[in-house]
Amino acid sequence: MNELEKLRYHLKRGFENELTVNEDGITSHVDTINHCMLYAFGEYIQEYQTHCTICDQLFVLIEYLIITLLENFWVIIEESRDKLYYFLAYQARKVYLNNQFKAKLLELDNNGAILICDYKIRILPKSIRETKEQFFGKWGWTLHTILVFTKHVDLQLNVQAFDHWSTDTKQDAWFTASSFDAVFEVLDPKPKWIRIFSDNGGHYYNSELMTIISN
Ligand SMILES: [Zn+2]
């Protein structure tokens, strides 16, 4: 149990702290294979000399469970393993993206703007659903948020938040484009360049949407 607790703590906290990204947003080779982001992203070229013994415990544990437990547990073990791998992938992506954001924020001048966009689906709690149903539709509504970071002439950081919601819970390109359009309309002064961030890539990685927005 003690070993498991150590592993759990490392996966939740330690692992994330071991991942390193330089100030300019570029990540370089780390000799411990478990903590190398280049390895995680499949971009490695150098050899690795060391392993993290705590991270490795995850593979040891899974193998141990498969050998020790009966066959009818295998599906559950494999599902749990996949979830844990997904969790680690998510941690790596989060650290990488946060650092990209920090690096771009350093580059931000008073000609540009950095936008962070995200979709949130809000379903109304049952108690207020009856009263607001007509307004928000039967299944809740979609909330799209855009945070706009700009710098003034004195390089003071300025943050504006724009929420748009739709009663249509389908997150379509038209709604997304409309949200961006509404933000572009009110930005004053108009930035000469923008950079858009999202940790919800799937909703934005769509050629129709990218064409509309860049236009
Ligand atoms: Zn580790």
Task: Provide structural commentary.
The longest helix is centred in the middle third of the chain and has 34 residues. The protein has two domains: 105 residues, no CATH class; 107 residues, no CATH class. With 215 residues, the chain is of the alpha+beta class. A hairpin with a 5-residue loop joins strand 2 and strand 3. The chain is built from seven helices and four strands. It has a four-stranded mixed sheet, sandwiched between helices. Helix 6 runs parallel beside helix 7. The site of zinc ion (ZN) has 9 residues, from helix 1 and helix 3.
What is this entry, summarized?
This protein has 2 domains: 2-106, no CATH class; 108-214, no CATH class.
- Measured between the Cα atoms of the first and last residue, the distance is 57 Å
Roughly what fraction of the amino acids lie in strands? 15-25%
Helix content: 40-55%
Average pLDDT, all residues: 86
Number of strands: 4
Rg (C-alpha, Å):
22 Å
Ions, cofactors, ligands: which are bound?
A: zinc ion
Name the strands of the widest sheet in spatial order.
Answer: 3-2-1-4
- Domain count: 2
Alpha-beta content class: alpha+beta
Can you write the helix and strand succession as a string? HHHHEHEEHEH
Summarize the main sheet: 4 strands, mixed
Shape: globular
Low-confidence stretches: none
Number of helices: 7
SSE map:
Layout: H1 2-18, H2 37-40, H3 53-68, H4 74-107, E1 112-122, H5 126-136, E2 141-151, E3 157-166, H6 173-186, E4 193-197, H7 207-214
Parallel strand pairs: 1-4
Antiparallel strand pairs: 1-2, 2-3
Helix pairs in contact: 1-3, 6-7
Bound molecules: zinc ion.
